[in-house]
């Protein structure tokens, strides 16, 4: 029986959630196995390409030890399609009540994207306290997250956008950050080469990043 997931448990699984853009379904399963081998099992496969949904479906069927979710969920139809493909959580670049409702109806824990205080308040009004800060670096980065610690002390964030292995530890040191999202774990050229050992190495390094308890 699949474990019961919440947005918080997804964020707590590892210090980094890889943000994955796939253009070839044939890469999906090997890539997922490589990430899991390195200690990263929560995988955000974005819906930025037509291959996103088929890749989610392939990973859900062939790599049960992975927790595969859909990123770039922008509307209710995306949420329903992601759930049908086997996604176990959803991540959105922004937030609307219709996306929140659709994810609840589909049984998908959601990490809603926010970039302003008003968006945080809207997400909280709809019952979401675990949020994706996107685009993190461009929208104020560490200083913005520190500023939010006062008025939104109960909110926990997954900053995504501009996060690198170099600045990730600075974000993870903040008390309101549980994990970060990063695309560096699955470089395009590495995918194209099929260098799964390198992806496992990147995953192992990411899984070892320290974060605040």
UniProtKB/TrEMBL annotation:
InterPro entries recorded: Aldlse_KDPG_KHG, Aldolase_TIM, KDPG/KHG_AS_1, KDPG/KHG_AS_2
Gene3D superfamilies hit by this protein: Aldolase class I
Alphabetical list of PROSITE patterns matching this protein: ALDOLASE_KDPG_KHG_1 (PS00159), ALDOLASE_KDPG_KHG_2 (PS00160)
EC number: 4.1.2.14
One MF term in the entry's GO annotations: 2-dehydro-3-deoxy-phosphogluconate aldolase activity
Catalysed reactions listed for this entry: 2-dehydro-3-deoxy-6-phospho-D-gluconate = D-glyceraldehyde 3-phosphate + pyruvate
Key words of the record: Carbohydrate metabolism, Lyase, Schiff base
CDD domains: KDPG_aldolase
Pathway in which the depicted protein is active: Carbohydrate acid metabolism; 2-dehydro-3-deoxy-D-gluconate degradation; D-glyceraldehyde 3-phosphate and pyruvate from 2-dehydro-3-deoxy-D-gluconate: step 2/2
Quaternary structure note: Homotrimer.
Homology family: Belongs to the KHG/KDPG aldolase family.
Classification via NCBIfam families: eda, PRK05718.1
Name this polypeptide is given: 2-dehydro-3-deoxy-phosphogluconate aldolase
Organism of origin: Comamonas piscis
